[in-house]
Amino acid sequence: MQKANTYDAIVIGAGMSGGWSAKELCERGLKTLLIDRGPDVKHIKDYPTTNLNPWEFEHRGGISKKEKEENPSIARCYAYREDNKHFFVKDKDHPYIQDAPFDWIRGYQVGGKSLMWARQTQRWSDYDFTGPSRDGFAVDWPIRYKDLEKWYSYVERFAGISGNKDGLDTVPDGEFLPAWELNCVEKHFQSVVKENYKKRHVIYGRCAHVTEQKDIHRQQGRGQCQNRTECERGCPFGGYFNANSTTIPWAAKTGNLTLRPDTIVHSLIYDDKLDRVTGVRVIDVASKETSEYFAKIIFVNAGAINTNMVLLNSKSDRYPDGLGNDSGTLGKYVAFHNYRARISAMCEDFGDLRSKGRRPTSAYIPRFRNVYSQETGFLRGYAAGFSANRYPIRSSEGLGQELRENLFAKAPLGPWRVGSHMMGETIPKESSYVSLDPAKVDAWDMPLVHISMKYDDNDEKMIMDFHDQLTMMYEKAGFVDIRVSDDHRAPGLDIHEMGGARMGHDPKTSVLNNWHQIHSIPNVFVTDGACMTSTSTQNPSLTYMAMSARAAHHAVDLLDKGEIS
Amino acid sequence: MKRRTAIRSLGALTAGIALFPGCSDGLTIEFDPTQNFTFDSNQRVWIDAISEAILPKEGLSLTTYEALADYISKMISFDKSDEDQGRFYNGYNLCTEDIKSINKTSTSELSPTQIISYFTSQLENNEVSKDETLDKKMMQKSEDKKFFCQNLRRLVINHLRTSKEYQEDILEYKLAPGSDSYIACLEL
After folding, report:
1. In the predicted model, is pLDDT for residue B69 greater than 50?
2. Does residue A530 lie within any of the structural domains?
3. From residue A133, how far is each of A512, A533, B181 by CA, in Å?
4. Which of A60, A240, A354 to mutate to test binding with chain B, by most B CBs within 10 Å of its CB?
């Protein structure tokens, strides 16, 4: 039985990072088992709503009151709608324990959250990797930008990233496909910021959309983005990057991939005689039968919190508190992105201009606070989105013929409205944790996870600064009716939870080394959000992709050299 | 609920029946929150007539997921709590009786103008909660009528707005606009 269930490598989780791990391992010739707890989702075939028009949805895109009440966390997610709700995990089906309020947004299927992600892809710079070492909060990253640079390029070329070469040291340029154009108000704001601030910039938001079909995209069967902006349903053109249309079928083409969906990983099997992990224990979702699979290399890519759960649940005499947890930090120092703050305003100029059509992204303001020196009363900084839009104002006043005439009248364009949202770095703390409940279990007898992440004083100061600074920038641009807001959302809705198995130089204070290996167990790699030592401000997925590709190649190199056996 | 709301709704229903002892046109809705409600044929004719008065669609050929009456009952059940569903259908019953009583005629003989006139008075009725001379029951009835009128109007408009023709012809919706469809700056 063991022989039949033995592979060269096992990848746990078929999402954003797991897809990359599997692709690279398969391409390097390793027979790889890719496990996911959710069902398989085949590109196009399993996008049931992708070609539906608004009038073809029974509830016109809405979610029922009952469903919202039963699933309060997921119902707060901006992307959760009738057209894509089948890709989201329902709170009631997969309960967890909120020691502090946390809206945990999950996608349990092959492809994971890569099906519904926001597709924003900014590289990290050394200002991000050196954040902890500069201010002393959290441990120093054991890698720098130079370690990831070529891997960023590698994944960008394959995934298809649109963007402009802006020449900024805070968000390094990449291998870009053409960008969408900023509209007149966005360009105006860009030039005003450039005139007034040396170190602040407004750029086009780099995103994982194929704006020019290269040969590599043709080989993947992907076409150009058609500006549908229905991405979260899955794209029939393959216009945006998700694991289902790219990495997983690419891995399958090698003939080295075995995909096992509907399979929950219970734990990793540690052999104390060999002093390494030899495989995984799994539970079949439908039958609840358990079985074991074996491999020389294990990649844990279950998604940040689930990866922590798997490691914490992998207990042995050698590791009674979770696999590789010699430091006692496993499950701790988790963090997220602070998305609470917003600002909106009106632009009274450019009344003779408009934009036309839809586009799947907008402008981006890279982090400008505390980049080159500590200049504020809070640590780290924030990035921000920026967009300007102008919509027809259609009256729905009246009754009878008057109402009909209003609804069918040619609607005049309203004023330009502009807005930004904050994407703030939060500081990983020992008091922020995920842990396993000692008694409560789910339908598969897996312990329920406790989550505790809270905003702190640093986050509150950052929100105030965002409001102040963006207000000043908006005023300089001549925007009026400026309104700031704080929606006081719980952590989680940013869908950027990170950490818990952080990378570091020192095994006493971290779980993973500079190659994403567990310090004491070199054949186990973690390359999803769990590995993150700090969060910085950029959307993290591109970095997970680059990390996964880099680590996978390193793993195969070690195997080839006989350093892992 | 469920039980408590059901009892309350049944209570409202009983009161409704007592209020409308002369109802013989089959329009009264006996709302039971434990059942999926759909309008019967008589009620459909009436709700269609009200809806047509609110938003005339004569000459329009609309492609929609379902008929308007089905959309209304479905979305009320979808969007509203059991209690608010009870309020909507109680409001429907009260408004139906009001319109007949004010115009001294059956629903089939009402003109769109008479229906609009009644709806206008209900939608513009902002003084309900401030009128201290109304007892609680009367106030509730008045609020239920307004609740029905507001929600029915909203659903009638949404049903039109989400039709294929309105989406394509008025809102210029295209499922796949094309790779070069976005124009950043365009002179008016």
Report:
1. yes
2. yes
3. 17, 11, 46
4. A60
Q: How close, in Å, is residue A402 to chain B by CA atoms?
A: 9
Token pair of A374 as six digits: 């500590």
* Residues A190/A183, Cβ–Cβ less than 8 Å: no
SS3 state at A214: coil
Q: How confident is the model at residue B128 (pLDDT cuts 50, 70, 90)?
A: low
Please say whether the beta carbons of A532 and A498 come within 8 A: yes
Partner A contacted by B4 (CB < 8 A): no
The answer as to whether A310 is a domain residue is yes
B118 part of contact set with chain A, CB < 8 Å: no
Quick check: B176 and A226 CB within 8 A? Answer: yes
How does pLDDT run across A398-417, given as a tens digit for each residue? 999 999 999 999 999 999 99
Structure tokens given for A55 = 């009038």
CA distance A163 to B74: 45
Can you tell me whether residue A8 is helix, strand or coil? strand
Q: Is A213 inside any structural domain?
A: no
> Would you say residue A437 lies in a domain?
no
Nearest to A224 among B79, B179, B186 (CB): B179
Cβ pair A183:B184 closer than 8 A: yes
Which string of DSSP letters, residue by residue, matches chain B?
Answer: -HHHHHHHHHHHHHHHHHH-TT--SS------TTS-----HHHHHHHHHHHHHHS--TT-----SS-HHHHHHHHHHHHS-HHHHHHHHHHHHHHHHHHHHHHTS-GGG--HHHHHHHHHHHHT---GGG-TTS-HHHHHHHHHHHHHHHHHHHHHHHHHHTSHHIIIIIS---SS--TT--EEEEE-
CATH code, domain with A1: 3.50.50.60
Q: Name the residue range of residue A52's domain.
A: 1-119+244-336+497-565
Residue whose C-alpha is closest to residue A537's, from A391, A423, A418, A402: A423
Helix axes A145-159, A541-560, angle to 10 degrees: 100
Dihedral sign, CA of B60, B65, B67, B72?
negative
Tell me the nearest-neighbour CA distance from B60 into chain A, angstroms: 11
Give the count of domains, chain A.
1
Selected for mutation to probe chain A from B88, B120, B154, B162 (highest A CB count within 10 Å) is B162
CA dist., res. A544 & res. B84, Å (int): 47
| ipTM of the complex as predicted | 0.90
Extract the tokens encoding B183: 């124009």
Compute the distance between CA of residue A535 and CA of residue A498 in angstroms, rounded to an integer.
7
How many angstroms away from the CA of B177 is the closest CA of chain A? 6
Q: Which pLDDT belongs to residue B15?
A: 41
